[in-house]
C-alpha cells in the first residue's frame, strides 16, 4: 500500500484498514497479522504508529497479542459490538 495521505490520525486510519481486513475475512479468525516490521513497510510509517493501531484494535477486541509471537485476528463473536 502506498503512503497513506488521509486527514486525521494515521494510527486510526491504519487500524481501520486492518479492522476491515479482519471483518471482510481477508484476515481469518486466529490468523496472525503481518509483523510490525512488515506493516511499517506496507504503510510507510513508524513502529510506534503501528503499535498504536494494534492497541486500538486490541481495545476493540478485534485482535489479541502474544508477547514475542505477534497479533492475531479474533473471531467475530469476540468483536466489540457498536
Automatic annotation (TrEMBL):
Q: Which SUPFAM superfamilies match?
A: Winged helix' DNA-binding domain
> Has UniProt tagged this entry with the keyword Transcription?
yes
Specify the domain of life of the species encoding this protein: Bacteria
Domain HTH gntR-type: from-to ranges? 8-76
- InterPro entries recorded for this chain? Bact_HTH_transcr_reg, Tscrpt_reg_HTH_GntR, WH-like_DNA-bd_sf, WH_DNA-bd_sf
The alphabetical list of record keywords is: DNA-binding, Transcription, Transcription regulation
| Key word Transcription present | yes
* CDD domains with a match to the protein in the record: WHTH_GntR (cd07377)
Q: Which Pfam families match?
A: GntR
PROSITE patterns per record: HTH_GNTR
Question: What is the protein name stated in its UniProt record?
Answer: HTH gntR-type domain-containing protein
Q: Which organism is it from?
A: Actinoallomurus spadix
Amino acid at each position: 500500500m502506498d503512503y497513506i495521505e488521509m486527514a486525521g490520525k494515521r494510527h486510526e486510519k491504519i487500524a481501520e484498514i486492518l479492522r476491515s481486513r479482519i471483518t471482510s475475512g481477508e484476515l481469518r479468525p486466529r490468523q496472525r497479522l503481518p509483523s510490525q516490521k512488515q506493516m511499517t513497510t506496507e504503510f510507510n510509517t513508524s513502529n510506534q504508529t503501528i503499535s498504536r493501531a494494534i492497541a486500538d484494535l486490541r481495545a476493540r477486541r478485534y485482535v489479541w497479542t502474544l508477547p514475542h509471537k505477534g497479533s492475531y485476528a479474533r473471531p467475530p463473536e469476540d468483536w466489540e459490538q457498536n
